[in-house]
Amino acid sequence: MSPPIAPPGWSRWLVPPAALSVHLSIGQAYAWSVFKPPLESALDLSGTQSALPFQLGIVMLGLSAAFGGTLVERNGPRWAMTVALICFSSGFLLSALGAATEQYWLIVFGYGFVGGIGLGIGYISPVSTLIKWFPDRPGMATGIAIMGFGGGALIASPWSAQMLESFGSDSSGIALAFLVHGLSYAVFMLLGVLLVRVPRSEKPVASGPSAYEGVQVSARNAVRTPQFWCLWIILCMNVTAGIGILEKAAPMITDFFADTSTPVSASAAAGFVALLSAANMAGRIVWSSTSDLVGRKNIYRLYLGAGALMYALIAWVGDSSKPLFIVCALVILSFYGGGFATIPAYLKDLFGTYQVGAIHGRLLTAWSTAGVLGPLIVNWIADRQEEAGKSGEALYGTSLIIMIGLLAIGFVANELVRPVHARHHVPAPKEAEDVHERQQSA
Amino acid sequence: MSTSDSSPPSAPAGTSPGRRGLIAFSWVWVGAPLAYGLYELVRKATQLFTG
Q1: Is the CB of A133 inside 8 Å of chain B's CB atoms?
Q2: Residues of chain A whose pLDDT is less than 70?
Q3: What is the DSSP letter of B18?
Q4: Model-level pTM?
Q5: Sign of dihedral through CA atoms A323, A328, A333, A338?
Q6: Could you tell me the keywords of this UniProt record (chain B) (predicted)?
Q7: What is the pLDDT of residues A298-321, one digit of tens each?
């Protein structure tokens, strides 16, 4: 399948909504928790069992992005968005069948395995195209798309909850909800499939830079460079630090101020979680766009350096200032989102646009690793402290110190990033195609 | 080609009226559900100060 070339006069401002239609849909994954309680009561499942579809989905996201990236580069964004649409939507339809027949394995397979492939391919589908359309503002362009992934949960969470309320929380109600999700997301994502185009020329903006300006490195060569692994460490450390707070935000703020004169109620804790989601989403577009002005290395200095400072402030001030705790957590979460959204532009700066989508896919394994590491650190330490008879903010002190250490490691990795050595470059776009084809046939 | 515009989506120069309509439609397509999500988020977030 050849990539869809934009006709003359095609506006590049049609590409971000195409990307958003995919990212806003697949971002639903983070709202899976809405389905957990009804599934548990309807199919008699434990909490661990009901989390399986989401967990498998995230694993498949990492795997399909890593292994499918080259296919996405070769076949283009329309092919990738079509695959994402089919897989993500089919995942819901299979889950609907699973819920209707009370076959839970079908929900795990459908939503987790099939839908998870849609998540991975959908996540990387617009990245390379956006960078080629916006060589003058790659951070802003990818920030818009990746902000959509954060926004997807904001839409799906209340929408799915309302649907379950209307259809009922028994197995037939859940099946109907899955069916409506599958069909609605298919229609919504179709806009992306129909609108996405690759630019006709290397210079999509007459007065702007060329999309192929600077060095070009293939995905195969990129993973052999220290720069790739520095970025892998940076992403992994930044995400670990953010996800640690995000995953345990509600119990964390409740425990932190439990022994004070102003304890946090359950509804206030839910409000705190919502505010963190907003900071996460805002950080994706604001910080990523800022990186176009101040440079990628500087913005990661901010994420990692100021992020460590925020954690240190929380550890130092402890439970004596609730506003400071909230502000620090919001800043950390904005850096978490910013780290996700800025990484494609950082990759473009170092490796060029040639196979940036495939390189980005491989880098997302850092996300999968951080997704396990972050919650593991915070939960394991909190459990051990609780067993030791501690309570309140003392449950999280050690975790905060560890997060500072992880961000410091990321900061050092960022300082070690240098331009890629010339031996890894591919000569020029046309020749690069030839090299790529030779590599594929080798 | 190549001159797609570098101006914001509201005023893309050199774009036909049909394309302008398509740009507006596509942004509303993705903007409307996002606005709904943000509205629900703000409602929930206010609980931090009132809850």
Answers
A1: yes
A2: 1, 202, 205-208, 211-212, 428-442
A3: H
A4: 0.86
A5: positive
A6: Membrane, Transmembrane, Transmembrane helix
A7: 999 999 999 999 999 998 987 888
Check CB contact of A161 with chain B, cutoff 8 Å.
Answer: no
State what percent of residues in chain A have pLDDT above 90. Answer: 59
Give residue for tokens 């830079």.
A209
* Interface with A, mutate which of B5, B28, B30, B36 (most A CBs under 10 A): B30
Across chain B, where does the E strand assignment appear?
none
DSSP single-letter state for residue A28: G
Chain A closest CA to B28's CA: distance in Å? Answer: 9
Please report residues of B whose CB lies closer than 8 A to that of A274.
41, 44-45, 47-48
- For chain A, give the percent of residues with pLDDT over 70: 94
The residue ranges of every structural domain in chain B are 17-50
Per-residue model confidence (pLDDT) at position A200 = 82
Two tokens at A38?
Answer: 């009804």
- SS3 of A198, please? strand
Answer yes or no: are the C-beta atoms of A342 and A288 closer than 8 Å: yes
| Through-space distance between the first and last CA atoms of chain A, rounded to whole angstroms | 21
Q: Does B48 touch chain A (CB under 8 A)?
A: yes
Which residue's entry shows tokens 């020329």? A201
ipTM for the whole predicted complex goes beyond 0.90: no
Q: What is the pLDDT of residue B3?
A: 41
Domains and CATH numbers, chain A: 12-195 (1.20.1250.20), 219-424 (1.20.1250.20)
Of A13, A151, A271, the CB nearest to B12: A13
- Torsion sign (Cα): A92, A97, A103, A109: negative
A154 and chain B: CB distance < 8 Å anywhere?
Answer: yes
Of A11, A157, A268, the CB nearest to B47: A268
Q: At what angle do helices A138-167 and A266-294 cross, to 10 degrees?
A: 160
pLDDT in tens, A406-441: 999 999 999 999 999 888 888 765 545 554 554 455
Question: Is residue A393 within 8 Å of residue A256, measured between CB atoms?
Answer: yes
